[in-house]
Amino acid sequence: MKKFFKKPFTVLATLFLALSILPGTGFAASNDVVAEPRIDPTAAQALTIQSQSPIVTDESGNAVQALATDVAILTLWSVPSGSSTGSSGGDGSSSFGTHSFITVNNISSSSITIGKLSGIAANKLVSVGTWGNKTEHTGIWYNLEAMFINNYSAYSGRVSHSMYISSTQLSSVNSYIINHDSWSLTNNCSSFAVGLWNSISSDDYSAGTINTPQNLYYSIKDGAYDTNASVPYNYAVYYAQGTGTPIRSTQF
Q: Which UniProt keywords apply (predicted)?
């Protein structure tokens, strides 16, 4: 169990200035949408994307090998204070942190579904997070973090930890995504990201008594972690509709 990082706050309402905030399977359902590739990579680009797959380690930092039953890598991310670019609730320069999110990277030889996005090819990645400051939608967004990182060099200083997941665990991840299409001051991006991770992992993290990306950032740093790991931008940006079909963003 991770040590909880707790920080007192005097005015709960100021959290908005910093916080980013049905069953699913690994296979496409009737109201899933096939994700639109951002690029059609060359063979060389495909190898580069594969080499950018997150490195999975145990809590001591030792490399972990995938099992034959593993189909994806789940990664938990949190970004400290210091940048308003890519903040999902307001000014990320405050002391509450900038944003938290998860990514799922397909390491199988077949296409998988992530949340309600189907057709995710081998060695491709999808980022998922909740947002409260986008005009098109409040709640789950797909690939918005990947876009900010690759197009605007956002989230410098981000920390992460990864784990391999089986098809059964991927189904649980998808169910969690589909059933958490929301964002609020106290149920923000860090609440979503850490809640999803803790729902399938025995290696728990904490976003604090009052959930913030900054608290989750310190919790991840309490064990083995990576800094500024790659987040490939493989697919177009979509926003969720709960259990319905995701919609391609016209803003991003």
A: Signal
- The residue assigned the tokens 């980022």 is 127
N- to C-terminal Cα distance for the chain? 38
What single-letter amino acid sits at 69?
A: T
Number of structural domains, the chain? 1
Q: Rounded to a whole number, what is the largest CA-CA distance in the chain?
A: 53
Whole-prediction pTM: 0.83
Residue owning tokens 């991006």: 189
Q: Which domain, by its residues, includes 40? A: 26-248
Non-local CB neighbours of 15 within 8 Å, separated by 6+ positions: 9, 89, 96, 185, 186, 188, 210, 212
Q: What is the spatial distance between Cα 136 and Cα 239, in angstroms, rounded to a whole number?
A: 8
- What sign does the dihedral 61-221-153-190 (CA atoms) show? positive
In a domain, residue 10? The reply is no
Residues 149 and 160 sit within 8 Å (Cβ to Cβ): no
Q: Would residue 51 count as lying in a domain?
A: yes
Comparing C-alpha atoms, which of 217, 193, 222 is closest to residue 59? 222
Q: What is the pLDDT of residue 246?
A: 98
Q: How far apart are CA 85 and CA 98, in angstroms?
A: 8
**Separation between Cα atoms, residue 211 and residue 202, nearest integer Å:** 20
Q: Is 77 inside any structural domain?
A: yes
Q: With beta carbons less than 8 A apart as the criterion, state whether 136 and 245 touch.
A: no
Q: Which residues are CB-contacts of 239 (< 8 A; sequence separation ≥ 6)?
A: 134, 136, 137, 139, 140, 141, 142, 246, 247, 249
Split at pLDDT 50, 70, 90, the class of 32 is confident
